[in-house]
Amino acid sequence: MVPALVALLLFPQLVDSTDKVGAQAAVEAEISHEKRGDIYMARKMYREAVDAYREALGEQPRSARLYNKLGISFHHQLMFGEARRQYERASELDRKYAQAINNLGTVYYAEKRYKKAQKEYEKALKLTPNSASVYSNLGTAFFARNKFKQASQAYLTALELDPEVFEHRNQAGTLLQERSVEDRAKYYYFMAEAYAKAEIYDRALLYLRRAFEEGFKDAGKVLGESAFEPLHGVVEFRMLVDPEGKILPPPQQASN
Question: What are the pLDDT digits (tens) for 206-222?
C-alpha cells in the first residue's frame, strides 16, 4: 500500500511538471526569431542575438530592420567591421532608414573617424530632423573634432527636443547613442553648459561637479559663461568654482 500511495502522490507531480515544460515549449515556439533576438539583446546575450537575427533574416532576407538589429548585436561585442557591414546593408535596402545611418556613424566614431561619423549623423538628421539622440551624437562628434561651438549647439538642440536625452539607457533599441569621449573633464563641462543654457540647472550642477571631479580646473571659464549666472547664489555651485569665497560676492549680493 505504501509504495502505491507514494506512486499516486508522485504521479500527479510528474504530470504537472511535464505540462509546464510543454506549455513553456509551446510559448517559445510562438515567439518569432526576431522577438527572440530582441529578448537576448535586452539580456545582453549578444552572441545568441546574432544567431536569432540571422535565423530571422533567413525568413526575411531583405529586411533593413533586421540587418540593423544584427549590426547592433555585433556592435555591442565591439565587432565594428561586422557591425558596419550590417548597417551598410540596411541602408542599401532602405535609403531612408535613419537609424542604420546613425548607427554607421557610431561605428566610425568608435574607430575615431570623427569627420565621417559627423557626416553620417548629418545625413541621418536630414531624414529625421527631430531626433534628439542623433543630435547628441552629432554634438559628441563635433566635440571629438574640437569644434566646441558646434558641439554646444548640437547638445542644446538635443536638449530642446528631449530634456532627458542624455539620461536614456536603452540597450535594445534600433538607434545607438554614443557616450564615449577621451577628455571627460571637458566633455562634462560642455554638458553642464548645455544644460545651463537649456535652464535645466540641477543637471547643469551635476555635470559641472563631474567635470571638476575629472580634473577640470578653469573656474574663470565657468564664471565667465553667462548661462551659469543663475547659479551664482547656489551654495553647491559656489563651493565648486569659488570654495574660498574670494571671487563671487556674498549670496545676498549675488541675488540683487
Answer: 999 999 999 988 888 99
